[in-house]
Amino acid sequence: MNIPVDRNDFTVTLNGSKIHFDAAFIAMHGTPGEDGKLQGYFDMLQIPYTSCDAAASAITFNKRYTVAVAKMGGIAVAESVHLFRDSSYAVADIQDRLRFPVFVKPNNGGSSIGMSKVDEPSQLQAAIDKAFKEDSQVLIEEMIQGREFTVGVYRAEGKITVLPLTEVRADADKSFFDFEAKYEGKSKETTPAEVDESIANKIRDAARNIYNIFNCRGVVRIDFIFAEEAGRPYMLEINTIPGQSAASIVPQQVRAAGGNLKDFYTKLLEEALNAQSR
């Protein structure tokens, strides 16, 4: 049964009774759930919600702005170039500024749609054209060699908690973690990750720092490459509305920590309600 929502106050009417919601659990990928629009709407209505606020959501939805803010906060990120569809650019200039291989990706959006790994400059223009088919902005980043980890981070009862790490490895026939690797079984996820505590601690420290820098709320998932040569983690991106299906990474990490999803989601809702009253 479809029940219309009154967008003036986010209520529904059932059997003649108007129902008001105490809080909203946001689980929408993409716009408007992940880019700050829905959060701004709830802010205007003074309805608490479980995700980051409108400003943090909007910034992290834009990959270029995310890495720029992280870099200003002292977080290691890959060198990059940001292109706009309506602005001129020279491939030769990009070649001079970045070391190959590079990743070319739409600046907004996710799931690695429109993303390419470019090993040599002759492949660059085709990859840029592919990315521009998905977005009006394109981000080109140097590839960081290392192991890929992803980790959920959340705040509950005023405390920031980092969940067990997951290591992500694309199958041997995949050159990077693309759409097939993410959603069609072409990768292996190990939770908890088999990694030295010295490395894990560096990733956890970076994750807490990032959560604070971006003033995050609720649970977010942060992707890293740990560059063993440099001895430090590089942030790839922040997902403010991570997947919540049984097979998704954050639920895997909750179970690995010895928790259950009912209690976990209860904590997120309680934190949203408490934040509203503070």
Description:
- 32% of the residues lie in helices and 24% in strands.
- Mean pLDDT is 92; it is low at 178-184.
- The chain has 278 residues and is α+β, with helices and mostly antiparallel strands.
- It is globular.
- Strands 7, 8, 9, 10, 11 and 12 form a six-stranded antiparallel β-sheet that branches.
- It is built from nine helices and twelve strands.
- 32% of the residues are buried.
- The chain folds into two domains: 80-142, 2-Layer Sandwich (Dna Ligase, domain 1), CATH 3.30.1490.20; 145-277, ATP-grasp fold, B domain (D-amino Acid Aminotransferase, Chain A, domain 1).
- Helix 1 (37-45) packs antiparallel against helix 2 (54-61).
Low-confidence stretches: 178-184
**CATH classification, class level of the largest domain:** Alpha Beta
Percent in strands? 15-25%
Our count of helices gives 9
Q: Provide the succession of SSEs.
A: EEHHHEHEEHEEEEHEHEEHH
Q: CATH superfamily membership of the largest domain, which one?
A: ATP-grasp fold, B domain
CATH architecture of the largest domain: 2-Layer Sandwich
Net shape: globular
Arithmetic mean pLDDT: 92
Strand element count: 12
Total discrete domains:
2
CATH topological fold name of the largest domain: D-amino Acid Aminotransferase, Chain A, domain 1
Whole-angstrom Rg? 20 Å
